[in-house]
Sequence to fold (416 residues):
Amino acid sequence: MQERIKNMQKNVFDVLQERGFIGQLTHEEEIRQLLADEKVTFYIGFDPTADSLHVGHFIQIMVMAIMQQYGHKPIALIGGGTTMVGDPSGRTDMRKMLSLEQINSNGEKFKKVFEKFLDFSDDKAIMVNNADWLLNLNYVEFLRDVGACFSVNRMLTADCYKNRMENGLSFLEFNYMIMQSYDFLMLYQKYGCTMQFGGNDQWSNILGGVDLIRRKCAGSAYGMTFNLLVTSEGKKMGKTEGGALWLDAEKTSPYEFYQYWRNIADADVENCLMLLTFLPTEEVKQLASLQGSRINEAKVVLAYEVTKLIHGQEAADEARSAAEALFGQGEEKGSIPSTDIAVQAVEEGIDITDLLLLSGLAASKSEARRLVQQGGISLNGAKVENFADVVTLDNFEEGKVMLRKGKKIFHQILLK
RNA sequence: GGAGGGGUGCCCGAGUGGUUAAAGGGGGCGGACUGUAAAUCCGUUGGCUCAGCCUACGAUGGUUCAAAUCCAUCUCCCUCCA
Fold:
């Protein structure tokens, strides 16, 4: 807490820069100055394309939270309107079109997450949905009013469109940039929002809005982008077997979530601590400087802190003790992923392959067989030698059996 | 609307009548080594009642003893022209 108060005196711009958030800026000096002198209203947009947010979004949320700590006012924009169009940025093919119902239900889930990280009381932050102004636009009116301000020639030079020139780009998607630019204009007029932030991939969309505000209102607006979460090798982070690393506990369990960060590469520890936790910079530097296997201590802190932010202290504690139990010494308690099985199913004996299938450790029997043949499966700590092995009640201790796949994936089967 | 090119396994991409469950690469998974790291090496990567069978090369129908490969129709995409 003292740390935070001390930080208060610093310019939030410097904090963001020091922590490695900042990517590109439209006007570096002006932005820095404004953030130091004024209470700035800024926005970040989130398109509800899935039923949960993921780590990429979390960085943006961190920025909003930090900005708010320093007295600035975030607008969390839910892209109920823009999702109807679909952002082509960073994509090689067109997005699947989502139904309005789907978009709305996703948007509701996003809302809940924002409420967890931002203080919306007393107008300290607001949440808006661009469906409110985009869905009922009059086409011709809009074209004359806003469309006239965009040069197709210039739009085509934008990176996000350039790489779609080969694979094709529909007119629908081509309009995305205009939609997002219009959002910024709306928020500028309605809430005095003068800054838009986003991931690096949003650069051209943000520029579009800055330009539009200048043309329509002769106003000054600014944009800033943040580095995407990538590994030291430049690969996108936050990918798991199941796709993205989701923030929703239903889609990525706290234990899996914890393990993801616990297993991060050495070289990425500092960056992740800076971007994904509120730990003071000095502490992060110190943790990241640990040498050799001691760097694992930093990974534990990272995993614990991030899990705590997303899933709460209790879930973080459970995930940590589960990990300690499985990988080291420690009482076995906590949240190891598990599957229930009926007693009668086991009484007659169940094939190990079926059990692997049931637990989700293998996607097919062939895969299960392969895993066993390659020595990748163990049951209660003993390697399974034969894929024809049958698991019976004798294998259960206190109503459960522990399966392990590979070195790090554990799964319990609970008798029911 | 016209002319041309193309749709192959998770992705990229070879393959133009049989020996092709389909080269090669990427990614994934497992193993070895380690620190629950990285790098490296080895193996594996459609399914099943697994040395046998089934399903697969955009879709449907056809030619053939035999088709991802030939023909027809449809469909989607790309390039150029309008």
